[in-house]
Design a protein that fits this description.
Layout: E1 17-25, E2 29-30, E3 39-48, E4 56-59, E5 76-80, E6 88-89, E7 112-115, E8 121-126, H1 129-134, E9 142-146, E10 157-159, E11 169-170, E12 195-198, E13 201-204, E14 212-218, E15 220-225
Parallel strand pairs: 1-14, 2-15, 11-13
Antiparallel strand pairs: 1-3, 3-8, 4-7, 4-10, 5-6, 5-9, 9-15, 12-13
Length: 226
Amino acid sequence: MGRGNPKFHYPSSNPTVTIGLTVSTSSPVLCPTSPSPFFVTVSARILTSPHPASPITLCTHLNPLSGLHNRCFGNIVCVSPSAQTSKHIEIWPGYWARHVWNPRNLRDALPFITLRPHEPYEVKFEVRPEKIAAANPVVGEKYRVELTDKGMGTKWWAFGAWEDDPGMRYRTWKEGGDEGGENEEEEDEEEGDEDGEDEKGRYTMGEDPQDLALVAEKGEAIFEIG
C-alpha cells in the first residue's frame, strides 16, 4: 500500500473492465427502537467490458462487496442539522484488515462472486443495533453512509462464471500489480502458465487485477431518524 492515502487495491486509470456500485439503505427512515434490522445495500453491475456477453468472476475481499467494517465505508455521519454534524454511527475499524491465503488456491479462504451481464448483483450488510444506539440518534436527524476510495478494486478476477465450476482453482496473478508482502508462501510459488493443470488439478490465474475497477455510480445514501 502506498503512502499518504493507502488503499487495498490500485486499479489502472484506464481499466479494461469497470463495475458500477450503487449504495442504498433498506429504508429511508431508521427507527432506533424498531426490532427490524437496518441494512446498507450495495448493488453491482458490469458497466464496461471487452467481452460484453461474458460473466465476470471476482474476489470481494477488502472491497465494498464484502462488508461495512473494512474501511471501504466511512463512519455513518450525521449531516443534518448542522449543529450535530460531529455525531456518527461508528463502523470505521481501528486497524487495517489483513488476511493469509494460499496463493495456489485463493478459493480456500477468500470470497468470490460472479457478475452476469445485465443482472445486477446485490448484497446487504446490517448496521448493528448497538452501533446505532451508541450514536444516540434523535428523531429528525439525517445520516449519510458513503463509500471511501480504499477498496475500489479486487485482488483477483477473470472472465467467465468460474463460481459454477467448483473444481477450478484460482491461483494468484503473477504478471501485474504488487501481490507480495501478505503471505510469505507466495514468494516461493513457481512461475506457471496463466491457465492450465498441475498435480492438484485445473487452475486459472485470471486477469491482471489492475485491469478491473469498481466505480461509484451512487456512492452514498442518506436516511432520516424516525
